[in-house]
Amino acid sequence: MIFALELNDIRFAYPGGSEMIFDLSVPAGEIVGLLGASGSGKSTLLHLVAGFEEPQSGMIRIAGDDVTRLDPARRAVSMVFQENNLFHHLSVADNVGLGRSPSLRLTEADRADISKALADVGLAGKEDRRPDALSGGERQRAALARALVRRHPLLLLDEPFASLGPALRTEMVELVRSLQTRTGMTIVFVTHAPEDARALADRIIFLEDGRIAADGPVETFYGPDAPAEFTAYVGRSPFV
Amino acid sequence: MTAPSRATLPGTAALAILAIIVGGAFAGLIAEGARDLPSAFAAFDPYLLRIARFTLWQALLSTVVSVLPAIFVARALSRRPDFPGRRLLLALFAVPLALPAIVAALGVLALLGRAGLVAEPLTALTGARWQGIYGLSGILIAHAFFNLPLATRLLLAALDTVPNDRWRLASQLGFSPWATFRIVEWPVLRAALPSVAGLVFMLCVTSFTIVLILGGGPRATTLEVAIYQALRFDFAPARAVALVAVQIALTLAIVLVLKRAGADLAPDANIGMTARRPSLRGWRAKIADALPILAAMLFVVAPMAAIVIAGLRADLARLAADPAVHAATVTSLKLAALAACFTLALAFCLVRARQRLEARRSGRSPGLLERAMDTGAGFVLVIPPIVVGAGWFILLRHTGNVLNYAAPMVVAVNAVMALPFALRILRPAHDAAAARYDRLSVSLGMSTLDRLRFIDWPLLRRPLATAFAFAMALSLGDLGVIALFGSDAVQTLPYLLLSRMGAYRTEDAAGIALFLALLTLILMLASEWAGRKQA
Questions:
Q1: Nearest chain B Cα to A102, which residue?
Q2: CB-based contact (8 Å) between B84 and chain A?
């Protein structure tokens, strides 16, 4: 079986830091929530997949292709960060257009795709706005629109809702879910909020000290048989 | 406005002392101008106009040759966060700013002068006798030696403010180097450029020593050098008044224009390096980055090496036994230490009083006194020491031998010159300590003396040491005021250096320059070291 994402015995350490080991595979179309305390390696895992960090050993495959030594630009992934996804001196449409062409040489068809992607995330008619004129939630929507026009099968989200209020988070979770249903993308997202993970993920991977401490379907994590490490991290969750 | 209370009295007194030092100079200038109005007006002749034009022209060119290359060097350094020796190179780039201007000018001459290190090879290469760089080209090279590394560090700091996720995004979207420059790097560079170029331009407009030594004759003279010549050689106070008036008008105009353009002229002594930008791959990009970095390194290292080589060629044993060198060393250290103490006293009083006023108004907008202690004190930076010195020189000449005032003038003016830097270093530490312990010390009923002993001294010891060493180094290397007031009776090391150069004792000058460079570097390192420990 070809997985959308595979990490085979990936070993990585920051200068002076302790070694992290990641071993996992994600089938196509799955939504995986990465949870864990600060410093447990959640963001590092995403950075390794995107190619911002290079592992000391091991292999990373995306849709079956070995990408371990490839430049970030040559990997079939898109990423949305917590902040700083948009360039403030460029319009919303240009920011999304960068996903199609880094030099902004766009065809008519490209422009139509950009408008459609913006409509898909609920930003129709805001093409010419500057990012400063958008709310925090709208900026994250624009970043998602860019991921849509890139048409990569794998989407990485690094705490994409962390700076949003509760109502906006719920909206964004629903938006990501519906985009996934429409496109069939595989999504790996990092979050600090167990309720976001419960609402969005099909599967939870819980990290501790650079290792995968627990891995399973979301129902297990929020049910009576939740892994002990996870319960200790969440505390007495209102969901259990 | 509230009357000065016990808590703000020392600060108000410090402000008054500042006003006397700067105001006295202006009083001297205005009195002289009023006394001999026709002469002062007559001094506004085509010659003065030409000097003013040259002052601006050389500053503009110096800014271009310093800042433009700095953009490429900073970008190359930013693209290579992890090449070996990067930290060392950045430390090296901080050295020119720590060197006295007279030493740097000598280094440029030792390298590129008529008898410089490259004179022989260049003569052999071109077939024509190497004439040495004097005049505009010499001034530009020396200014670039100071300001290219400064501009590089400031622009690199601006590039380091780009959030790491931006670099990651750029690499994921597959930006070409050109697209990265246009979309990510240029916006932050453009935002920083008015400040950086403004600071460099300002430093070059008010640069005295470089122009004095490397500028030659009436064709390459700036206002500050002309002020000095009018007072020391021609003894034409009316002309000096006219020159000072133009210099002040120019500086003020420039400051206003730059403020309009959004420039922040306050200097920053230290810069942090934090970015974790992904390094670029590929040998082509490597070469494209190595070239500007190596070129800048060569440009900065060569004059420094020339200072060392020329200095070691001097008869150091004889210099070490020279009573004039001994006397100048003792005088220099004494005056610099006094100036540094004076700076610290002024700075501490101002910082304390400003913080008191801010705490007392609790959220309302600051009063006149507080603002005077805040931006007003920093403003003295744009008043060149030569101008203050010239004002007092003209005022004091009626009291007999003006050169008798050399020591107090050097101490006072150099102290004021170092004040903005000392404020920058002291204020954050002081205000942080106050925010933390003010209420506690009041509730414990601690007296002012108890506070000084148990709170201020332990917490501010290191910032005070940093500021002291910095102020002392600055004062030690200054040639501005002593050039006006110096004589055989009171000589500092820079003054001795200048007179040995004037007497064509080049080897002696090189030896003294090396010694002076070592002294200031030791002080700067001490300042750095004290500053690092507190962090």
A1: B175
A2: no
Q: What is the pTM of this model?
A: 0.82
Query: In this complex, do A87 and B168 lie within 8 Å of one another by their Cβ atoms?
Result: no
Of A81, A84, A89, the CB nearest to B187: A89
Kindly report, residue by residue over A103-144, the tens digit of the pLDDT.
Answer: 888 999 999 999 999 999 999 999 999 998 998 889 999 999
Domain A5-234: which topology?
Rossmann fold (3.40.50)
Please spell the DSSP secondary structure of B44-82, one letter per residue. -SHHHHHHHHHHHHHHHHHHHHHHHHHHHHHHHHHH-TT
CA distance B405 to B391: 13
* Spatial CA neighbour of A78 closest among A177, A151, A142: A151
ipTM above 0.85, yes or no: no
| CATH 3.50.50.60 is held by the domain B50-222+264-313 | no
Portions of chain B given CATH number 1.10.3720.10: 1-35+315-535, 50-222+264-313
How many angstroms separate the CA atoms of A229 and B6, rounded?
Answer: 60
Alpha carbons within 13 A on the beta-carbon side of B125: 6
CATH homologous superfamily, domain B1-35+315-535: MetI-like (1.10.3720.10)
